[in-house]
Design a protein that fits this description.
The complex is a heterodimer of chains A (252) and B (563). Chain A is mainly α and 252 residues long. Chain A contains ten helices and no strands. Chain A is 52% helix and 0% strand. Chain B has 15 helices and 20 strands. Classes of the chains: A mainly alpha (252), B alpha/beta (563).
């Protein structure tokens, strides 16, 4: 077993190369979507300076979890969570009010530019009104003792849940394996996150839900880079304004 | 002097009432709790593109801040305040309400739905009641609503028993293309002697009312229609109401109806986070959907001399049947289902006797449709060891989506006095108001009906050539809806029951509260029973009947031709 830090770096590089290869084969709209969704991720992960909310170390741990949840090559033949930028999706969501500009909570409409439209309306995220901003800040940042956020009592935000959950996971990894989670061999990581007895179930369910959103949701939210999640599942994604013909609906 | 009506809500029932009153010359103010995601709503020049799309992540992000709580009847009896806090059958809080995310399946209720108590007798442990009017009384209002929204269907293809229970004329448009996955089930069902047929649906199959035909994009159920091919309250009645001069106030959260001496005099609400303000009104139309309408009545302290406000809450139950097929069914194309099968909606007296019930009744079977991709991933992730390598493998082979032929039966949920909405004593919403607390346990009738019909539906799948066929009875469906208490049908009915006896009902046949007659309830909360079919068309027709009488100040007024 080699150093997992090396492994992470090497695989990131390998994947970067393969992404470029994919890019050259992809049709033009797909390239547009890919390059539109990618820059924030590139900053977040490759600069080594942390993301919008998560620190560089937290992103290492989170990336390792996402990689175990939705693995890519060589373990699986198709691109996985790291190829699709899932940790970036999660960091963008946790940092929705830190990114600047309109928080990426609700994509705009009606059409992306993937099925015949010329402009990607999805990328024009909806402005939040005051009620929505209060509600989403409370969910994401927590109530933080702010009276107007405590209509239902104190709320632990998603940010705190991730910060605490990732730290707890690293503590567990050190206690059982003598090193941080992302440095453990993959089978060891699986033992820590696939079994409920370590008391991390609720946090890992949260990461799982966000991972599948980032893998299989619209790329404007910062995940599903290169439409990786849609390609291997034969999922065409949003289809308007082109839609489908009657024959495409009715025939096998 | 012009009468002023405040309409609380802008969904199916509310929009019909707002449209009728505004077109009759009333001064109408619509208070909608959510936002308006339409461009050009109320613009005579026409609707523009909406601010939503075929986006699964965004569609699942309901605005936080409006939790509900829930518990079972047994928990309530044991003094448990609540066992669930969070979402429960939440409908979109937005201009157009639940018709933003519906897939517009619009069967009519049957004649017997209006007279279950007298036709089939009382049910032990339930509170089944007749409606105060008949199918015949409602037929003209069904006709009118269908004419406004436009329904695609094939009346000739309906089996004789459907024609007998819900007689009707031709539909406005022919049905859209059959979905391939639905036709697979239809073959099996026909082999088993059933008569499935094209599901009546309020989506255009030709250009109509300035809206284009459906182009089968697949993002139908749970999604707003991005091209306005699918009708809903917003693009029909609400649009018309605004053109006729009604005012839509969005982000207006009603805190209470103000009543004095048995009359409503106005409504208090908050515009966003601003301080409470009030508007005076001659009439208040309450149509915020059954859970929220009951909550508003309770917050206002009105209408409850019978002690029945919030009671008789019904949801419908779901029984799911599925099987694996060899080919990919591509059900991401089309309209979230294209056919239906109605045999389970026929009450079965013979089988019911074994269980001490007067009848056993399932409901409409929806044919076609499949999970979306994030939803599919979530299904595998909930399986033991369904994450990791196994997850990728399952997403490739897609046993629970692209290779899954499935149907769901939406079945009658018997009204029970003890299934109820009240105000939670401890949990508050973003405005600091007590949230709705749901106490709910299905009657054994619903569970038995699911166990009775589930295997029969699975047998249709076997006859269609599917392998590994199975069914999921209603009780287990509770596990999949994100809450442990109630089925996740988004069909919310009862709570402000209508009837002729003020001691046994909250509202009269025209939705007027017995205690406060100028509060007119125009949503599914007035339903005495839940029926065995998708309820929205009947909500709209019932609202049209109530608001027509209201607009004319005359209970004998009849609906006129569409203009």
């Amino acid at each position: 077993m080699g150093s997992s830090a090396d492994r992470f770096g090497r695989r990131t590089l390998l994947r970067g190369g393969r992404d470029l290869a994919l890019l050259s084969l992809a049709p033009a709209p797909l390239v547009g979507a890919l390059t539109a969704a990618a820059p924030a991720a590139a900053q977040a992960e490759d600069a080594g300076t942390g993301g919008y909310f998560l620190t560089a170390a937290e992103l290492e741990t989170l990336a390792a979890v996402c990689d175990r949840f939705i693995p890519g090559p060589p373990e699986d033949p198709d691109p996985g969570a790291l190829d699709a930028g899932v940790p970036n999706y999660i960091d963008l969501f946790l940092g929705a009010f830190l990114v600047g500009g309109t928080p990426r909570i609700w994509a705009g409409g009606p059409f992306s530019d993937r099925a015949g439209a010329t402009h990607d309306d999805f990328a024009d995220f909806l402005e939040l009104d005051e009620i929505e901003e209060l509600a989403w800040r409370t969910r994401i940042e927590g109530s933080l003792g702010i009276p107007e956020r405590e209509w239902g009592g104190p709320v632990e935000g998603l940010q705190q849940k991730y910060r605490k959950g990732l730290a707890t996971l690293d503590d567990l990894a050190r206690a059982r394996g003598g090193r941080r989670f992302h440095q453990l061999p993959t089978w060891f990581q699986d033992v820590l996150i696939m079994f409920p007895q370590w008391g991390l179930g609720e946090f890992l369910d949260l990461v799982w839900q966000h991972s599948i959103e980032g893998m299989y949701g619209a790329p404007e939210y910062g995940g599903n880079r290169g439409l990786a999640g849609w390609a291997y599942t034969q999922w065409p994604g949003d289809s308007q304004p082109r839609g489908y013909t009657a024959a495409e609906v009715s025939e096998p | 002097m012009t009468s002023h009506a405040i309409v609380i809500g802008s969904g199916a029932g509310a929009s019909v009432a707002a449209g009728v009153l505004a077109e009759a010359g009333w001064d109408v103010t619509i208070l909608e709790k959510g936002r308006n995601r339409f461009r050009g709503l109320g613009d005579p020049a026409g609707l523009g593109p909406p601010l939503f799309g075929g986006d699964e992540v965004g569609a699942d992000r309901f605005a936080p801040g409006n939790p509900r709580t829930a518990r079972t009847q047994a928990q309530a009896a044991a003094g448990v305040a609540r066992s669930h806090v969070g979402a429960l059958n939440n409908l979109p809080q937005t201009a157009g309400g639940g018709t933003i995310h519906w897939d517009a399946k619009v069967p009519r209720f049957w004649d017997i739905d209006f007279a279950m108590a007298s036709e089939y007798g009382p049910v032990p442990g339930a509170d089944v009641a007749d409606w105060p009017f008949s199918y015949g009384d409602l037929a003209a209002y069904y006709d009118r609503v269908e004419d406004v929204i436009g329904v695609a269907g094939d009346a000739d293809a309906e089996p004789d028993f459907v024609k007998a229970h819900a007689p009707r004329g031709p539909y406005q448009m022919p049905p859209g293309p059959p979905m391939y996955g639905a036709t697979v089930f239809v073959r099996g069902a026909e082999a088993r002697g059933y008569q499935p047929y094209p599901f009546a649906m309020a989506h255009n199959t030709v250009e109509r009312d300035g809206r284009p035909p459906c182009n089968n994009c697949g993002f139908c159920s749970h999604f707003g229609c991005t091209i306005h091919a699918r009708a809903g309250a917003a693009v029909t009645f609400l649009h018309r109401a605004l053109i006729a001069g009604a005012t839509l106030r969005t982000r207006a959260n009603v805190t209470r109806i103000i009543a004095e001496g048995g009359r409503a005099v106005g409504v208090a609400f908050r515009d966003g986070l601003s301080a409470e303000e009030t508007i005076e009104a001659d009439v208040v139309v309450l149509a915020a959907s059954a859970i929220e309408s009951a909550r508003i009545a309770l917050l206002s302290g009105i209408g409850d001399s019978s002690g029945l406000v919030g009671r008789h809450l019904c949801f419908h139950t779901e029984t799911f049947a599925a099987g694996r097929v060899a080919e990919r069914l591509h059900q991401y194309r089309g309209r979230s289902g294209s056919h239906c099968m109605m045999e389970p909606a026929v009450p079965d007296k013979a089988t019911a006797r074994w269980f001490g019930l007067p009848y056993l009744r399932g409901g409409v079977v929806e044919i076609g449709g499949a999970p979306m991709l994030v939803e599919e991933a979530g299904i595998y992730g909930d399986l033991p060891f369904g994450r990791g390598r196994n997850h990728k493998s399952m997403m490739r082979s897609s046993p629970f989506r692209d290779h899954l032929c499935s149907v769901q039966m939406i079945a009658e949920d018997l009204a029970q006095r003890t299934n109820a909405v009240d105000l939670d004593p401890g949990v508050k919403d973003i405005y600091g108001l007590p949230v709705a607390r749901i106490t709910y346990t299905p009657h054994r009738h619903e569970l038995i009906a699911g166990w009775y019909w589930g295997p029969k539906l699975a047998a249709c799948l076997s006859a269609a050539g599917a392998s590994t066929t199975y069914f999921v009875p209603p009780a287990l469906n509770f596990l999949t809806g994100g809450n442990p208490i109630a089925p996740d049908t988004r069909h919310i009915l009862g709570t402000l029951r209508m009837g002729t006896d003020p001691a046994a009902s909250v509202t009269d046949e025209f939705g007027r509260m017995h205690d406060v007659p100028n509060v007119v309830v125009c949503d599914g909360s007035t339903f005495p029973t839940s029926g065995a079919f998708n309820p929205t068309l009947t909500i709209m027709a019932t609202s049209l009947r109530a608001s027509t009488a209201l607009a004319h100040g005359d209970d004998t007024a009849r609906v006129g031709p569409v203009t």
